[in-house]
Every structure is written in structure tokens, then in C-alpha cells.
Amino acid sequence: MLDLLTADDVLSHVMMLAATNDLLYILVEGSTDCSVIDPHINTDACDTLPSGGKSVVLGAVTLAHEEGFDRLAAVVDRDWSEILYAQPDHDNVFCTDYYDIDATVFFQEQNVLGIAASFADRSLLRIHISNSRFDSLQEMVTQLAFPIGILRYISVKSRLELNLRDFPISVVLNTEGNGVDFDSLIDLTIKRSPAAKVTRAELIRHYRETEKIANGDRKYCSGHDLLTGLAIILYKKCGSKASIDAIARATRGAFNCSDVKSSPLFTAISAWGSTHGREVLSCL
After folding, report:
1. 3-state secondary structure of 53
2. Which ranges of the chain have pLDDT less than 70?
3. Which residues pair with 173 in a beta bridge?
4. Does residue 132 sit in the same domain as residue 167?
């Protein structure tokens, strides 16, 4: 139902709620965002509302500003902000620290270590990392997600219409289980994208050019690819029996007060609350 909401619908709902209390409100794109943010919200001061996507959230905040309603802020995915386009031009709109909320959670390394300790066979995990060129599980998973992130970026920037939604990382995992097989990645991307406006050779050229510019920047990695990659490596190489969804939920749940205190996103949310004389976070 959330995907049917308009910015007007969302703001009308917020205004009805606000008429019954003095809470501050934070719009988020979906329920996944709430699962990370809500445990750290002081519910006596603030509440979050999933609102059906980035464009709807930004539209509702713009309408609220025009109406002079200042008890509303928003958290949106960073996506390609500062890489392909500017961040949203609103004082009360805050971007996730990385590509999205799941990437923000993943790049707290202790979370990855904790999930691995809970779901993987410790001996198998240690052997798998020691036999690879990576120093940590987090680094390994990041390098698995990064090439897919490059393709996502290329598709948006050049309007190539590549179908990378719910990309099946397990199909392009290399034989060592610590990265992607590049040829398989390109071939599967082309196969899944019948409307793509690019040849195989052109896509490889785009990829190589962008890879040099990106230079391993973590902000190219989407949360979906990171958490899927983590689950697949733990399952295929480290004895885990947990599903991708179970790994994702556990990783989000591992985001703790220490993570909140080090997060620019949550620092910005707290500062916004302070302008209203409220401490909206329970951790600070």
C-alpha cells in the first residue's frame, strides 16, 4: 500500500497525527529504515513514519515547508548523492551515511563480525579469510558488492536500463567464493536486461572507465548487495544455514548505541531535534 501514497497523502496523515500531540516526525522511505532507526528513537519526543519511497518523502517535506510546518524531517537513501548529483537541498532532510540504511549498518565492522560469529562455523570462516587476499570478512563482501554497484551507477548515469534489481550474486560468485567472476557478471547482466541500450563490449568499456574513477569507494555499494553477499559467503563457504533475509534482519538488529554515536546520520537527526528543544535519540 505504501507505493500508492502521494506526497499530499503523507503530509495529510502527518498533519492529522500532529494535531493530537506535540511529537516531532521523521519520514523514512520504508519499514526497513524503521527497523534500524526506531530502537534508538526517544518515543516521547519523536516518531518515524514509512512513506513509500524517496520522491514521496522529499515531496512531503517540501510541502510541509511551504505550509510552515516545522515538526517534520526525513531520512532518505544517499543513493548517488555527491557522486552523480547533489544532496537534497533541505535543512531537515538527512541522507544515510552510505548508499542506503543497510549499507550504513553493514559498514560498522563489529556488526559483520557479530553476525559471522552467530551464524558461521568459526574454523571454516577463519580458513576462508586466510585463504583469500582479504584481511577481513567485511572487506571480502565489499569487494563482492562493488562491481555490481559500478553497474548500478553506470546504468543510472548513462540511462542504459540494466536490470540489476535483486541481482543473484550467487550465480556470479567466483570459484574461490570471495569475489565475482567478471565475465559471468557481464553476461548475466546483459541476459537479464533485454531493454538495455548497450552492447557487451560497450558495457565493459563503461565499467573499466568507471572502476578507475570509483577507486573502490564504499559509497558505490548498495545494502542489498552487501547483505546478500554476506549471507552467500557465510552459506557457501562458512557453514551457515541462515537465509539472506535472516542475515539481513540480524545485521540491522546489531546496530547499537555505539554505532549511533559514530554515525553522521544520527548526529544530524539529534541536532535537528535539539533545534526544537528535544533529544530525539535515546542513545545520546
Report:
1. coil
2. 1-4, 284
3. 180
4. yes
Whether residues 109 and 160 share a domain: the answer is yes
Per the structure, the complete domain to which residue 65 belongs is given by: 2-97+263-275
Nearest to 115 by CA among 260, 238, 31, 264: 238
Distance CA 165, CA 251 (A): 21
Q: Quick one: 93 and 165 in the same domain?
A: no
* Amino acid letter, 262: S
Q: Are 281 and 258 in contact (CB under 8 A)?
A: no
User: In degrees, to the nearest 5, what angle opens at C-alpha 93 toward C-alphas 90 and 98?
Assistant: 125
Same domain for 221 and 122, yes or no, is yes
Residue 283 lies in a domain: no
Please state the pTM of the whole predicted model. 0.93
Predicted local confidence at residue 151, as pLDDT: 98
Asked if residues 260 and 283 have their Cβ atoms less than 8 Å apart, the reply is yes
Residues with Cβ within 8 Å of 156's Cβ and at least 6 positions away in sequence, in order, are 80, 84
State whether 40 and 88 are in the same domain: yes
Closest to 248 (Cα-Cα) out of 266, 221, 230, 222: 230
